[in-house]
Amino acid sequence: MSNSNQPLKTHYRKAFDSPYLSSADIIEPTVLTISRATLETDRTKKTKDVFNTAYFEEEELRPGEKLKPMILNATNSKMLKGITGSPFLEDWVGVKVTVFVDKNVRFGRESVEGLRISPARVTKPSLTPDKTQAWNNAKAAYLRDGTLEAVMSRMDITEEHRQQLIKECQS
Fold this sequence. Notes:
By secondary structure, the protein is of the alpha+beta class. Helix content is 25%, strand content 29%. A hairpin with an 8-residue loop joins strand 1 and strand 2.
């Protein structure tokens, strides 16, 4: 994760504004959700090449910074096939991946920085009664919604604690 004391620096490749996500955009490994994957013509208009391209549900990479689509090269396409068990772009929708920078991607005879993806390891914090603020927020959400769906999408809660929370809300 990033060190909050470290000033945000500007990567030299930011000057070459690309319509695609690049290693200049990714500061730390970032979990993203694929909203669609398509086969499309190079948007830079530098080539007539066609690329596998991933679009993401998240709209911003960081506050105020629009998230761009990502070209899925052969390595990343194979990784998505492995993650999903499917070679079809349409089956990659909804998949969470971690996008990170690999400093040693082979490009011809050179080693360059490149984007790589891996399965997202998304863990949710546990909700327990001793976490007073979170517990009270969960109770407020239950009283507002009548369910714990919103809470459970962000936190893990045991069946026992779920029943306890509901009981506390009803008393």
